[in-house]
Amino acid sequence: MRLRTVDAFTDRPYSGNPAAVVLLDRGPFPDDTALRAVAAEMNLSETAFAHPLADDPGADWALRWFTPTDEVDLCGHATLATAHVLASDGRVPESGTVRFRTRSGVLTATPGPGGTLTLDFPTARLTAVDVPAALPAALGAEVTAAHVTASVHFLLAELADEKAVRELAPDLAAVSALERPAVIVTARAESAGHDFVSRVFAPGHGIPEDPVTGSAHTALAPLWSPRLGSDTLTGLQLSARTGSVRTELRGERTLLTGRAVTVLDAELLTGL
């Protein structure tokens, strides 16, 4: 069975966020144990599994995402990677938009100019909360404000500036003990060409630091767009690999635009 590794939210190999993509024959999905085993073997932040849908008028493909330890409800970079693989294989519908049936409803991916792909995702609702007592010590930095998200279950922490985000060295054991399974840290960008910066830590899901997190930007867009006075922004994720996500806030939906590049095309010898 063919397996590809795609670096998402970048146009350069070995940057952005790598995802493994497995396109299956028509459903149903294989047993979850087999899917989890493949994802653990890949040991990337996410492995995407998709199969075509024959009798679903609302979607073209069923799509699921697994970290090395868990199935997740929403994943941006692995969706972008899957759409990139489908486009590379010439399997995009005549409409130009691929529709994915997922645990977060129907998500779409549309090819654009310059090799870009735009995802249409649900906007994450933010609720401001008091800074959790354990959060500053876990992150090793002062937290100026905190929010929780209703859909993607992040804790979002605002830091003083880009330098604080860039130099952060959190205690991952302490982060994994927090109530929320993943933490986004963010600040306004000082780097030219970007509006805000972020990093994402999810050690409880087997991901110490996620290189570029599309789903986190569904929470970052509604945080920063009102403050910066623009529905369209560009975020820079400051992991070691780095990557950029353009966001466009459209009320209950957020568009995420980026590029992707295939770096590995392999055969999964054991099959599924």
Can you tell me about this structure?
InterPro entries: Phenazine_PhzF-like (IPR003719). It comes from Streptomyces boncukensis. Belongs to the PhzF family. One of its GO terms (molecular function) is isomerase activity. One of its GO terms (cellular component) is cytoplasm. 19% of the residues lie in helices and 39% in strands. The protein has helices spanning 32-42, 76-88, 135-139, 162-166, 172-176, 217-228, and strands at residues 2-8, 17-23, 46-52, 61-66, 71-72, 98-102, 105-111, 117-122, 126-129, 145-149, 154-158, 182-188, 196-202, 207-210, 232-237, 243-250, 253-258, 260-267. The model has no long low-confidence stretch (mean pLDDT 95). It is α+β, with helices and mostly antiparallel strands. The chain is globular and about 50 Å long. The chain has an 18-stranded mixed sheet that branches. It has six helices and 18 strands. It has two domains: 2-118 and 259-267, Roll (Diaminopimelate Epimerase, Chain A, domain 1); 126-251, Diaminopimelate Epimerase, Chain A, domain 1, CATH 3.10.310.
